[in-house]
């Protein structure tokens, strides 16, 4: 039975109702964090289905992560009880990420592009980098000088900026760029030969089809009578154009977003997509939501104070009817272990006061901060979960199985071939493999196909020859799995593999039980997939596996602390949030600022990231930083983040940077080696100004000066002769 209108709208405020009930045409919802944007989108979908006679499959809803999509499907299910068979699928509506929607479309439509079939493989970043490394070597360049990840990101950036009209140009005519271009060209060829797409291609190929095959485009545009996009501020130009195509027939497009939460510029996201919406879609209705339902007054104050330092923004007022709540706690820690212990202690105290572990999240800017935090949580027996679905799929045993499954579907997938040809060991060394690759390349064949050629193995000797013949046999067996259900296909793969030997070879002394259990778990995923999507088969399963993004393993209902990066926490909320490592080099992230065309723009983007983190907290917020941190190259003194100075004093408690500076000054001994080892970037102590970082050194002798950015006093220029700076 359809849910009554009044029931749907219950509890929504006027602006939210307006957005849910808005008539046809373009609709923009701009609003700050926690104001109910996502809730409005979900309710609107339910409203369209139950009150406006739109069938679920006529709706396309795009979210940023698979997890958000899953949650949205579940919420829509609850609002519109679907027939049994459709449970868990959002009543048949198309709800997913750009990548999953595009993969789904390509499975049906990619035939119109020359050279591709619907059995295409999806390559992840690791696969991409492996292929690039091979290409760099093949072309005779030094893979140490031309690093695959670097070239990979360069290629990706170029792809994602296609279609921008801001005159973006990467070309500076340098020799390095010639190499990159040569690699890119070869990469494109090799991907096509392999019938493979990387993540960027998923979107670009759909765009290519929509741009050039209007019949196909129109079929989708007519089908989707309503298109809704959450987190629109993080769409890039390619996604923007896709959305335009999707909405090109009915023009019913709802987007929502918050320019202050735009944190993906480094991946090509373009904030103009949201700022220009009213111009791009004439007649657009705009709804602003101003009430925050998530956070306490103090957390909201802190968030507003921080973000108000960004110049490139429209001011907006976010208020809450909720309680003022507790102050934001800022704690200075000695080093990362100290910090991790502090966080663990605060989480335990949250639980002691009646909270749950599942209410808590620890957020950080860079992945390497995770290790110390995990260690402290384990030590304190605090249950936690790292929110990174990728982890599971990065394990060697799982990657091997995925590669074998990919070969079953698409034998042309050379990257997968190379990965497993010698798994378990068949005596196929690098030289033999290089010979085979060369043979295949010369004839324009995939390596698997080359194996079928009579004279392919002529130049290959001994064990390798036998090993390759053996693998050719295994490939034939694998081909049987092509049209099977995922779990059955996996069984075929496992049968083709000498599982015991394979596991034993990976044994690094800790036994094979863990890996065997992972294989079991993967088998369970596959059966679960078959049950959920009976028509998906191996193809669909591989697609899902390829698209697990880093927020996916996250299960909201488990009573465990969640650990994740600031980028991964978008859209989520927790009663207790700890943000670790709020330090000078980490937030803003030094490399992000250094590599940006305009450092000021990067500093604002990093501030938005801090803002996103702060606004995840419902009741309690803890911010920590250290004075000394270990990095890959060793440890060194560090300073608190500039953003900490922006937190309003009235809203914070605990030991903020200011008070700590006073203490540090008390301990300062000016007699100790002043002036030694001063260089740009060094952290120094000054008898009056406290700690700071040297930004610039000029002049010599009695004229030598240093520009120092002090934690407490800001930037100052000092004559070294008198300054008695001590390097820390
Ligand atoms: P973000 O920008 O962080 O993605 P958002 O604008 O999407 O935030 P939601 O996640 O939709 O915000 O909502 C934040 C919280 O407020 C949720 O717990 C939601 O259920 C709650 N909420 C939203 N609207 C209302 C309302 N009218 N009454 C009570 N609670 C509400
Ligand atoms: Mg949201």
Automatic annotation (TrEMBL):
Catalytic activity: ATP + H2O = ADP + phosphate + H(+); Couples ATP hydrolysis with the unwinding of duplex DNA by translocating in the 3'-5' direction
Coiled coil: none
The keyword Membrane is annotated on this UniProt entry: no
Superkingdom of origin organism: Bacteria
Domain UvrD-like helicase C-terminal: from-to ranges: 297-571
Record GO biological process: recombinational repair
InterPro entries to which the protein is assigned, alphabetical: DExx_box_DNA_helicase_dom_sf, DNA_helicase_UvrD-like_C, DNA_helicase_UvrD/REP, P-loop_NTPase, UvrD-like_ATP-bd
Domain UvrD-like helicase ATP-binding: residue ranges: 10-296
Sites where the protein binds ATP: 31-38
UniProt name for this protein: DNA 3'-5' helicase
Source organism of the structure: Saltatorellus ferox
Gene from which the chain derives: pcrA_1
